[in-house]
Design brief:
The chain is mostly beta strands. It contains ten helices and 93 strands. Strands 2, 5, 6, 9, 10 and 11 form a six-stranded mixed beta sheet that branches. Strands 13, 16, 17, 20, 21 and 22 form a six-stranded mixed beta sheet that branches. Strands 24, 27, 28, 31, 32 and 35 form a six-stranded mixed beta sheet that branches. β68 and β69 form a beta hairpin. The chain is extended.
Length: 1425
């Protein structure tokens, strides 16, 4: 009930904030039930309270209704309304002929100025009289088997069934179980179970005992007996939240093993939910909708198996998903109260207004089967509305209030969803000002049968912009108006739909401006067109009964058929049923058969033609003929008055079975087996005194109902014995002669003997009991009762019990006894052996499979019983981590949701019934690594003391590293809005947590990000950190020996392409042109020298050289070159890249292939100059990180010409190959200084260009040596979150990545030829690496590439291969296609050089020189420009 109160407080808060309307807007009144009556099962003679309480301001008037009629509690002695509103019924009256207290009750609360609300309907039932439909039968059972003793009674009396063994109460626990039908199940029968059994039904003041039956126990002979079901599960329907027992009793030898399945899934026995009771029945506590389904009982004994199944249906009382809300509205509006409910079965929805049922009409409509729509509000519609949801197991209701405001009072909130779109415009607040005059010339443009289209002219005096028009309309002669608004300002027409044919309507139009609604136009009347296409109503409809179960209906054709009649639809319903049925008829008459006897039905007919249904006829009613009653009178009881008379009581047959007017009752009675006598009463009489009977004699009675058609079936025989003598009832009985108690754990069995004075009438006994006091609870039993079991007591508690006999005068003297219930003891079951051989197999980074063996199972490890296994696991970091557990019925379990790269320990235990094992020995497993899922933490940037252009970056490892961190990448930029691939990167190898960056621009704001990597790939980027470098430089000495040269060298590549440095430091035009001229001059000079050297080398071929080559080949026989150099073309000078073609080539199978994606030069010594004439400044431009591996310091100026984006390796192959250009090793490198002078020598080597079949990548790893680029082989890398895969024709220039050198056989299997992006920027860039091959050598464009020849020496040293990346920072162009040749084999290249002596002539060389001269002219033009 807190929810309505909260809604009310929120509403008050909202209303208090409104301005200028507090004094005129009425607020919603809090009015709701805090307590409602609930369904109750009463005992005759006891008291019952039906709860009801209301929260209301002001106080509400409370009344009670029973079966729809208000109770008059003023003059009622037994019924009384308590102060808070609850109804007290004293001494419930109940007999077969008189049940004044049984029925349906409702609490009704009313506030005169507000309205009425009605509580939920509560059903009060009174326990019926005991009656057995079956008696126990004699049974013989073998020892150790299971048997049933039947005792079938009324369903509502099953809880009162008790069983006796040799006249002693049977305690229902262990081997004894009472099934839902009252049947007694005895399992594992023993000799002590033999004897006589009987059942009894005991309610307050009533008792009935069955016949005794003998139960014989036979000795077990050991012979096999086939299994058979003594009791199979039966279909059940139960209410959610209750407890249900599905019976399953099987006999046989050996004793069957029983287990259950739900929807073919085995059910594991749980103490909380599922429990096997008796010999195999299934008990389910607190059932939910999920428990519904088909349950199967499976019994196994040896190789034999039997099955039985039944369906359990779960019913759920109605529950509100959406309650109706309070609504403010104006007259003429349309509103909708929304109400959504759920339940099983699906509830039906009805609406109540101020306590009365809402009947659907033209203005009150039920939409979507549950929402209430009120059209054209009038003042009388104001009040309280309740949504009532009902199904077979309950009913609920929710209320809302409707307040209708005056038109000049704006609605204080925004349009709620319960207002229709047609009237939501009325909610706009108004301001003071002149209102518009009335619209003019309202007329109908189009009149149809179901709609009318109206138009009008604007008002003469709008007084402001007209915002909308409202069209009010109603049926002529009614005061309930509806409204329709125009959809856009300026609209001067509207279509009114959903009208009735041939009906006159009244329309008026009102204009609205910002100040509010103006004057209304004059009423305009117009009638819709009559419906002429469909048939009119059928004529002369007549219904006539033919028999007690049939009625014939006849009619004639409509006067206006409007075409041929296709068929008729006859609608009929039982009066008061509420749901109509129909049947298609092709003629003018129809006979309804199978109707109820003596029941009134209503009929109507609708004719159909090709246009659809016509007009319905008016309803006619007819009643079927009466017949004999189809059911006997109910609740026949006997009351012994004295030794010679018995009073017979009964109630009429159930409603619907009278089949006519009951004219009388026939009472037949007999003594023993003699022929009986008959007595007849009137139709309104429900009791009869039978006199003249014999003393101390048993008589049997039965009653039947009579109509004019005859006598119906008789009730069952009921018996009573007259008194031996007439007893005294002028005083209370004496106290009982004895009282005995026998305590159990939760029960106490009370037995007694009657008073010694047998001459005083005893009507029953009152038993009182309680802890320490006997007055806490009182139970009344019949006078024939001699024992009673007090149930649901507390274990190990002291109870005081009192017993009194009573009659009509009152209660007699009590007899007292005290006892203590037994303590609750649970035997400790012996433990099971724990599972063995527990193993943990790692599957992925977050899953581990745990397997084990069960030593208590057979060798085949097949599970045939209801045992289950519990797996628990935890990690030791952090130390206080709790265990997690999971249950399974198999010998393995996959644990998921684990943390990557984490060591877990696992153990298993087994549970069978109440027995469990200890935990097994532990198994351990460490999950695989995966990419980091969180960025590094605590990124900070500080300036280095004494060096304002140097900063120190510090950070902490990521929280979720998911593996060993192998490196970090620092991104920084002066533009926070730049794409991440335009930022400068700074790789950090290893797990260091600090790094220095030098040569930053002073007084400049930088933004920094960082990401971590492990062996599986890159993690996410951190949030950016902002840092501004100091303004003062300090002293010139802090910049180095030649600061100007340093700056010039660092910005050279940007200047050539017309860009500033990435930090925003501009380079003057003069410096840029000077550097450009120096670089071009150096490049041209280098080209000429290289061409001359290449020409001379190609001429030096003689026999001595061949011998040296052969010796060299012999010394390096282990290095094989792959590829065919038969028609290999020499590479061009990498000028005019756009005309070159890029083609894929095969991977090299070399044992030491170059495992680099985009190698990063680490220092100036790693870059081999093509000619000594190149200046140091040019060498500096190709340096990337300097000696960062030693001191963690790098220089930004040395990277300004590099690409700001590092490419990561991806699993997907790019659409087109990408090339890497690798410069040859240094000429003075001892790795290549050998005695042999052949094509493999650096002086005669071609430039090897290798094309990678590996995806694009970006990674920075540790190196294998101090001089080579440090790297870590990585064969399984995931893409970094910031990396993207682009088609080749859209790839931007990227920062070179660190090379990877193979270090193991496993890595060799994953070798890939290195790759790098190549993109045109300026023709001068093509001279970064150049080699001049003989012009006459032919190359094949599709030849596979071969890496540089590895030389074998006494102390071989592996050097990294550098990648010449061509591109400019901040500049993007389309990449060019390049045809990359392969180097020829040694032997073939020797022959090729020999052939070049004769093929490469002076004319061709002259032509090449001419071509170079033309290129020089192009370069001069560029320089001049």
């Amino acid at each position: 009930m807190a929810e309505p109160r909260l809604r009310f407080m929120l509403l008050l808060a909202a209303l208090s904030t409104a301005t200028g309307t507090e004094s005129v807007i009425r607020t919603f009144t809090p009015f709701y039930f805090t307590m409602e009556p609930a369904d109750t099962l009463a005992i005759r003679g006891s008291s019952v309270v039906l709860n009801c309480s209301v929260f209301a301001e002001p106080s509400a008037k409370i009344e009670w209704r029973k079966d729809g009629t208000f109770l008059n509690l003023v003059s009622d002695e037994r019924r009384q309304m308590l102060p808070e509103g609850s109804l007290l019924i004293r001494s419930v009256v109940h007999s077969k002929h008189h049940k004044p207290d049984e029925g349906f009750y409702q609490c009704v609360a009313t506030i005169d100025s507000l309205g009425t609300i009605v509580s939920r309907t509560a059903k009060m039932s009174v326990a019926g009289l005991p009656r057995f439909s079956g008696q126990p039968q004699a049974v013989s059972v073998h020892q150790g088997d299971t048997t049933l003793l039947g005792c079938e009674v009324n369903g509502d009396l099953v809880p009162f069934v008790r069983w006796e063994h040799n006249r002693q109460l049977v305690v229902l626990e262990g081997r004894f179980l009472k099934l839902p039908s009252g049947t007694l199940e005895i399992g594992n029968v023993s000799d002590s179970d033999a004897g006589s059994y009987r059942c009894s039904v005991e309610t307050a003041g009533l008792s009935k005992t069955s016949e005794e039956t003998e139960f014989t126990v036979l000795p077990e002979i050991g012979a096999e007996r086939k299994m058979k079901f003594l009791q199979q599960p039966v279909p059940m329907s139960k209410v959610a939240g209750t407890t249900v027992i599905l019976p399953c009793v099987v006999s046989g030898y050996p004793t069957p093993n029983i287990h259950w399945t739900q929807n073919s899934v085995p059910i594991l026995e749980r103490f909380e939910k599922y429990t096997l009771v008796g010999s195999g029945s299934l008990q389910i506590t607190d059932i939910t909708e999920d428990d519904a389904g088909v349950y199967e009982c499976v019994a196994e004994s040896g190789n034999e198996t039997v099955h039985a199944q039944a369906e359990l249906s779960v019913q759920v009382p109605p529950h509100f998903l959406k309650r109706p809300v309070n609504i403010y509205a104006h007259e003429s509006m349309d509103i909708v109260f929304e109400c959504e409910v759920t339940g099983a079965p699906m509830p039906t929805v009805k609406w109540i207004k101020n306590g009365d049922m809402v009947i659907p009409s033209d203005y009150f409509k039920i939409v979507n089967e549950r929402n209430l729509q009120v059209l054209g509000l009038v003042k009388s519609d104001e009040g309280l509305y309740q949504c009532v949801a009902e199904n077979d197991v309950g009913n609920e209701r929710a209320s809302a209030q409707l307040i209708i405001l005056e038109h000049d009072v704006p609605i204080p909130t925004f349009p709620p969803p319960s207002l229709t779109s047609a009237t939501a415009d009325h909610l706009a607040a108004t301001t003071a000002g002149l209102l518009p005059s009335a619209p003019r010339d309202v007329m109908a443009l189009l009149v149809s049968t179901r709609f009318i289209k109206l138009t009008w002219r604007p008002p003469v005096e709008p007084n402001a912009e007209i915002l909308t028009y409202s069209v009010y309309y109603s049926r002529d002669g009614t005061n309930r108006e509806r409204v329709e608004n125009t959809s856009r300002p300026g609209d001067l027409e509207v279509t009114i739909g959903e009208l009735m044919p041939d009906v006159k309507y009244v329309f008026r139009v009102v204009a609205h401006n910002k100040h509010g609604a103006g004057e209304s136009s004059a009423p305009f009347k117009v009638a819709t067109q009559p419906e002429v296409q469909v048939p009119g109503p059928a004529q002369n409809l007549v219904a006539q009964a033919n028999s007690p179960t049939s009625i014939t209906v006849t009619w004639q054709e409509p006067l206006s058929a409007n075409g041929p009649i296709a068929n008729y639809k006859l609608y009929y319903m039982e009066t008061g049923a509420g749901s109509e049925q129909d049947v298609d008829v092709g003629s003018l008459s129809y006979t309804m058969n199978g109707l109820k006897k003596f029941t009134e039905y209503s009929f109507r007919v609708v004719a159909y033609n090709k246009h659809g249904p016509g007009v319905s006829t008016e309803e006619v009613v007819a009643t079927t003929y009466s017949g004999v009653p189809s059911a006997p009178p109910q609740n026949v009881t006997l009351e012994v008055r004295n030794s010679k008379s018995i009073v017979v009581h009964w109630q009429p047959p159930p409603p619907g079975t009278h089949n006519g007017v009951i004219t009388g009752y026939n009472i037949r009675y007999k003594k023993g087996g003699r022929r009986g006598e008959t007595d007849t009463t009137g139709g309104n009489q429900l009791s009869q005194i039978i006199d003249g009977l014999e003393r101390n004699t048993e008589y049997s009675f039965r009653v039947s109902a009579i109509t004019v058609n005859g006598t119906g079936p008789s009730s069952d025989w009921v018996s009573a014995e007259t008194f031996e003598s007439d007893l005294d009832e002028s005083r209370v009985p004496d106290k009982p002669s004895s009282l005995h108690v026998r305590p159990l754990i939760n029960n106490i069995v009370v037995s007694w003997t009657p008073p010694e004075n047998q001459n005083i009438v005893v009507r029953g006994y009152a038993i009182g009991y309680g802890i320490g006091s006997p007055h806490a609870e009182t139970i009344r039993v019949d006078y024939k009762q001699r024992y009673y079991t007090i149930e649901n007591l507390e274990p190990n508690s002291h109870y005081v019990i009192t017993l009194k006999a009573y009659n009509k005068i009152g209660e007699g003297i009590p007899l007292y006894e005290s006892t203590a219930t037994r303590p609750l003891t649970v035997p400790d079951p012996s433990p099971m052996l724990p599972p063995v051989g527990v193993q943990a197999t790692v599957l992925t980074h977050d899953t581990i499979r745990v397997t084990w063996a069960d030593s208590s199972l057979p060798k085949n490890q097949k599970i045939t019983d209801a045992r289950f296994y519990t797996v628990r696991w935890k990690t030791n970091y952090p130390a206080n981590t709790k265990y997690k557990t999971a249950d399974t019925t198999t010998l393995s379990y996959i644990v998921s949701g684990l943390k990557p790269n984490t060591l877990y320990e696992f153990s298993v235990k087994v549970t069978k019934g109440r027995r469990s094992s200890t935990w097994s020995m532990t198994a351990h497993g460490t999950t695989f690594e995966t990419v980091p899922t969180s960025p590094p933490k605590d990124l900070t940037v500080v300036s280095k003391e004494g060096k304002p252009r140097t900063i120190i970056v510090n950070w902490q490892p990521p929280s979720e590293a998911n593996g060993k961190i192998t490196g970090y990448i620092i991104y920084y930029s002066t533009d926070i809005t730049a794409e991440i691939h335009d930022w400068v990167i700074e790789p950090v190898v290893g797990d260091r947590l600090t790094h220095q960056i030098q040569d930053l621009t002073l007084d400049t704001t930088y933004y920094f990000k960082i990401q971590a990597r492990n062996s599986k790939g890159m993690g996410p980027l951190s949030e950016f950190v902002q840092f501004r470098t100091p303004k003062a430089l300090g002293s010139s000495g802090k910049l180095g020996k030649n600061p100007s040269l340093m700056d010039a060298g660092s910005d050279t590549r940007h200047s050539v392409s017309g860009h500033n440095s990435p930090h925003g430091s501009p380079t003057s035009s003069l410096d840029s042109n000077t550097m450009l001229i120096i670089i071009i001059s150096a490049g041209v000079f280098t080209i000429i020298i290289v061409v001359i050297i290449a020409f001379i080398c190609t001429r030096r071929t003689n026999y001595q050289q061949k011998k040296k080559r052969a010796a060299c080949k012999s010394a390096n026989g282990s290095h094989k070159y792959k590829g065919n150099s038969k028609d290999v073309k020499p590479p061009d000078l990498w000028i005019h890249h756009e005309r070159l073609e890029l083609k894929p080539i095969d991977k090299s199978p070399e044992p030491n292939p170059v495992m680099t994606d985009t190698p990063i030069p680490r220092n100036s010594q790693d870059i081999t100059p093509v000619e000594n004439s190149m200046d140091k400044d040019h060498q500096r431009r190709n340096s990337y990180l300097g000696r960062e591996l030693e001191d963690g310091i790098s220089t930004l100026n040395g990277r300004r010409g590099l690409r700001p984006k590092m490419m990561m390796p991806f699993d997907a192959q790019p659409p087109q190959p990408v090339i890497s250009a690798h410069p040859i090793h240094s000429l003075d490198n001892p790795h290549h200084h050998h005695l042999c002078d052949g094509p493999s020598s650096p002086t005669r080597s071609y430039l090897r260009h290798q094309i990678s079949s590996r995806p694009l990548g970006s990674s920075v790893d540790r190196a294998n040596s101090t001089e080579s680029v440090r790297n870590t082989p990585n064969s399984d890398m995931s893409p970094a979150p910031s990396a993207q895969v682009h088609p080749v024709d859209n790839i931007e220039a990227d920062v070179p990545a660190v090379s990877y050198l193979p270090g193991s056989q496993e890595e060799e299997s994953n070798r890939n030829v290195p790759t790098a992006h190549v993109r045109p920027s300026h023709p001068l860039k093509s001279f970064a690496v150049i080699a001049i091959p003989p012009a006459s050598t032919n190359y094949e464009a599709t030849s596979s590439s071969t890496p540089l020849l590895s030389q074998t020496g006494t102390n071989p040293q592996v050097h990294s291969v550098k990648t010449a990346s061509i591109g400019t920072l901040g500049r993007s162009r389309s990449p060019m296609a390049v045809t990359v040749p392969s180097a020829p084999d040694v032997a073939e290249s020797t022959k090729m050089l020999e052939d070049s002596d004769s093929n490469y002539g002076p004319d061709e060389l002259t032509e090449e020189m001419t071509h170079l001269t033309g290129l020089m002219k192009d370069l001069n033009v560029i320089t001049t420009a």
